[in-house]
Amino acid sequence: MSMKILFAASECAPLAKVGGLADVVGALPKALQNWGADARIILPRYQTVKIPEGSEQVTSFACIYNGKSLEVKIFLTKLPASTVPLYLVDQPELFGSSGVYGSPTSAPKGTTDVEKFIFFSHCVIKFLETSPWRPDILHAHDWHVGLIPLLIKVKKLPIKTLLTIHNMAMQGLAAQDLLDDDLINEPSIKQDWARYGKINLLRQAIVHADGVNTVSPTYAQEILSKEFGEGLEEELNSRGDVAGILNGIDDVIWNETNDPFITHHYSQFSAGLKADNKVTLQQKLGLEQNPETPLLAVVSRLTAQKGFDLLPPLMDELLAANFQMMVLGVGEPELEKFFETLSINNPTRFSLTKKFDEQLAHQMYAASDIFLMPSKFEPCGLGQMIAMHYGSIPIVRSTGGLKDSVENLEDDLTNSDAATGFVFEQYNSKTLLNILQKSLSLYTSNPEIWRQLQHSAMTHDFSWYASSRKYFEMYEGML
Ligand code: ADP
User: Fold this and answer.
1) CA-to-CA distance for 131 and 457, rounded, in angstroms?
2) pLDDT per residue over 280-294, tens digit each?
3) Rounded CA gap, 309 and 303, in Å?
4) Measuring CA to CA, which of 19, 47, 365, 462 is 20 to 30 A from 254?
5) Following DSSP, what letter does each residue of 434-445 receive, concatenated?
6) CATH 3.10.530.10 applies to domain 4-248+464-478
7) Residue 325: enclosing H or E segment and its boundaries?
8) Which overall architecture, per CATH, does domain 271-459 show?
């Protein structure tokens, strides 16, 4: 009998995506099928997720939210472009009137994400209690489903739990007065929280899951320290078994040879055609059309984590150098403002697109020469892998999964046949400027080495093949 895995998460590409979490949840179950696993996904049905025609309603039940009984329906459909079964948890008030994150408009006023996802976790448990299909392993992703491992223990369900941590900085915190709500009526959970003094859903999962891993080997080491552990390093250290498995990318969605979002397809044998994508995008974004000008891309949440606060002190140098830069992302107001000012004052050199736009993201990976990701910390990072796959050379900081996935080009160029990008150590603007200048000068003065970098980056295997095997073996170990 094949091993049965249920992924529980708040995001899943392509249906509900905010960041890399969605890419992983949408791709890993497909890759696990190659090893013979029956991998399925359970996801809230948000406002933006339509229940496809022909979906089967597999069950319905009542679940208590703040003393009120709400009807929940579960539909079974398929993850788009796959044979992976997907359960959509339909509750119009709590999930159906909001995006992935943010307060639902038809729920009681002030309903927070913590409450929304605690409710989702209860729904998953009700489903597990009644479903004829029951997983051997519940694979929980991040804090949103952090309550599930403990709930499974409380209900004594014969299911093992694996927690994958995608970002230690997001933990699902709430004040203890949530304990007064009817939302959590398990005495043992109330006791656990009362003892800890506050509600922290990620901590709960770290303490109670049968297995814990994170999304790169380096980050798995880093989070055991005070600097990266975000206050939970003690809990992680006392487990002593936190594994690190590097994410992959979905090579069906990210395929430069037939990507439906880009106008000029290419491969590692014809990376020169990227220049056509460049000119097309320069025109679309109002940048000066010139295939020779190095074009930098940023596709990212614009938050402090991502390291863009290193750029404002470099304003003068950025203006003096010869390159163009396009930014796609939303985030913290000061960072948005910085990029906005640059683009308003220099519209033919800098562009900012302040939204989430899957199509433009694909076009930017395909059109850019350089991809900038100078993160302060980075659990894994998918942007740099997608960029390399698309022949855009990443500039990254040496942290977490960036360190594990990008091979730095040495100053003496001796490793030019193996290098895939530029990696800097010190988190400061000057170091970033140096490496930026180094990459720009190489781009213009040494096209041959640049082609080599591109070739190594594009031919490196960033697929899920190897990493999905590691997950499979981890499940086997737990069973
Ligand atoms: P994180 O998960 O921390 O946001 P990752 O690099 O792991 O960062 O994953 C980010 C994912 O989200 C990538 O697939 C990237 O292309 C995508 N992404 C980020 N911002 C945007 C945006 N504004 N529009 C489209 N895609 C975006």
Assistant:
1) 45
2) 999 999 999 999 999
3) 9
4) 47
5) HHHHHHHHHHHH
6) no
7) strand 324-328
8) 3-Layer(aba) Sandwich (3.40)
Pairing of strands 160-165, 137-141: parallel
Our answer on whether the CB atom of 381 is closer than 6 Å to any ligand 1 atom is yes
Q: Taking residues 230-244, what's their average pLDDT?
A: 96
With beta carbons less than 8 A apart as the criterion, state whether 442 and 411 touch. Answer: no
Q: What is the pLDDT of residues 146-202, one digit of tens each?
A: 999 999 998 999 999 999 999 999 999 987 666 555 566 677 777 777 778 888 999
Please, are residues 63 and 128 in contact by the beta-carbon 8 Å criterion? no
Contact between residue 377 and residue 166 where contact means Cβ atoms under 8 Å apart: no
Nearest to 439 by CA among 387, 404, 400, 401: 387
Q: Quote the pLDDT of residue 178.
A: 66
* C-alpha span between 259 and 253 (Å, rounded): 7
**Domain boundaries, given as residue ranges, for the chain:** 4-248+464-478, 271-459
Q: How many CB atoms lie within 10 A of CB 148?
A: 30
Tokens 């479903």, residue?
131
Q: Whose CA is nearest to atom 19 of ligand 1?
A: 300
Between the CA of 403 and the centroid of ligand 1 the distance, in Å, is: 18
Q: Locate all alpha helices (DSSP H) within 256-296, ordered by sequence.
A: 274-285
Q: Is the CB of 20 under 6 A from ligand 1?
A: yes
